[in-house]
Amino acid sequence: MTKWLGIASIILGIIAVALGAYVEFGLPETPGADGYVPALLGLGSIVIGAIVLRLHKNIDL
User: Counting CB atoms within 10 angstroms of each CB, which of 2, 23, 38, 52 has the fewest?
Assistant: First the structure.
């Protein structure tokens, strides 16, 4: 179960980074839109997913 949570966190992190990059670089003329925040949250999600997967390997559930 924890393995799937880690994988889901990584996938959602990749989606968040992609959306943040699209908002920041694909729509530069949009006023008030900042793509750095979703990209940074996505990177955090990827890191958390990687930690969960690493801990899952060490626990041997």
Answer: 2
